Amino acid sequence: MTVPPSVPSVPPPLTLAGRRIALLDRARIYACGITPYDVTHLGHAATFVWVDTLGRVLRALGVEPIVCRNVTDVDDVLVEAARRSGSRYDDLAAFQEFQFEGDMAALNVRAPDYEPRAHRYVEPVIRLAQALLDADAAYERAGSVYFRGEGVARSVGLDTETALRLAAEYGGRPDDPAKEHPLDAAVWQASEEGYPAWDSPWAPGRPGWHAECVAMALSVFGIGVDFHAGGADLRYPHHAYHAAMAEKFTGTAPYARAWFRVGKVTVDGAKMAKSAGNLVMLDPLLAAHPAAVVRLMILDRPWARDWDYTPDLLAPAAERLDKLHTAAGRGIRSPEEDLAQIRRLLAEDLDVPAALDAAIALGGGAARLLVTTLGLA
Ligand SMILES: [Zn+2]
After folding, report:
1. How far is the CA of 226 from the centre of ligand 1 (A)?
2. Ligand 1 center from residue 194 Cα (angstroms)
3. Cβ(67)–Cβ(104) under 8 Å?
4. What are the tRNA synthetases class I catalytic domain coordinates in residue numbering (predicted)?
């Protein structure tokens, strides 16, 4: 009897939101990290658990993820929060960052390969500002450097009115009288009383938020990334300006091959916010429930879709996890096609609900593969 020659199979390509992302052996993932002042609520947790899962799925498909997750430790929101609490902004940032890393470890989120902190990237931001000035993509006024942002909203399909509202909401100061256009964005912001300042060729000042992320992403990864990840609320202005500045700087577009914006978590239909007093913090959740249950509650849904948190979601998540673990305990070795089915379902837009159904039904090695790939061990 002759044994048929084995045919090497190519793992399925990843599809995100209906788009195929062809990859070779590595994938660069840049995730907009935290501004360390009110971490860690369930919204942060959902974003970073999904980014971690994207990396794990890529690895299961034979692609090594290289993850960079920054820390925005120079930020007006952070400085203002520190002022309210009577602490130094860098002390507050260091403390919150420590808490955040503990929460991520508890949720079985792998540490990123790179974790740049904005305060170490002031010099690259100054170089970025100078290059944007040289390209006439930015101009200097009163010691600040502004990126010409009039066309950015249009490029992501937003009307001016919405763009102005979002710019104001996210600290973009559209009413700054020094700007030529209200949608221009500070690459370098001249110093004001009470804010940290560094020397620059223009005036002592601090980097703008979008420019910080551009400097960190390009310093770590070069001209672009395969995946740029973050919460859905970062679409505009942050991600849109990030891409626009990076593309002007490198002359290469698109900056990101794919965007991985994770759906937002609401509570009773409302956005989670400190000001609304409805933050669901991770600490008490993890004190009352196993981390794997919280993780599965986050993952057992479409990654890009907004969802509403209620405590009622935890019991069904615990039940589902139990079924998966029971299935994984069935000591059978799964045939290659069972494993391939799990990989194929995850490769299809990270379809965790379908992969869970299949793994629970198939059991054995297929369920064990899913336990590992979803970080639920
Ligand atoms: Zn960012």
Report:
1. 15
2. 24
3. no
4. 26-317
Q: How many residues does the chain have?
A: 377
For residue 31, the CA-to-ligand 1 centroid distance in Å is 7
Q: What are phi and psi of 182, to 5 degrees?
A: -60, -20
Cα-to-centroid distance, 55 and ligand 1 (Å): 18
Alpha-carbon span 346 to 359, nearest angstrom? 11
By the 8 A CB rule, do 117 and 71 touch? yes
pLDDT of residue 3: 60
Q: Is 134 exposed, middle or buried (0-12, 13-18, 19+ CB in 10 A)?
A: exposed
What pLDDT shows up at residue 37?
85
Query: How far, in Å, is the centroid of ligand 1 from the Cα of 23?
Result: 23
Q: How far is CA 291 from the centre of its chain?
A: 20
- Ligand 1 centroid to residue 324 C-alpha, Å: 35
What residue type is 59 in one-letter code? R
**Ligand 1 centroid, distance to 68 Cα (angstroms):** 11
Spell out the alpha helix ranges (H) of the chain. Answer: 42-60, 76-85, 89-106, 122-134, 152-155, 160-169, 209-221, 240-250, 282-288, 291-299, 314-329, 336-347, 352-362, 365-373
pLDDT of residue 192: 87
Q: SS3 for 105?
A: helix
Domains and their CATH numbers in the chain: 22-283 (3.40.50.620), 311-373 (no CATH)
Distance 312 CA to ligand 1 centre (A): 33
Q: What was the pLDDT predicted at 77?
A: 87
Task: Please give the Cα distance from 126 to 111 (Å, whole number).
Answer: 29
Ranges of residues in the chain with a pLDDT under 70 are: 1-8
Per-residue buried b or exposed e for 308-319, using 16+ beta carbons within 10 Å of the residue's own CB:
ebeeebbeebbe
* Paired strand residues for 146: 139, 186
pLDDT of 8 reads: 67
- Contact of 365 with 333, CB cutoff 8 Å: yes
Give the pair of three-digit tokens for residue 14: 């990843």
**Rounded distance from Cα 311 to ligand 1 centre (Å):** 30
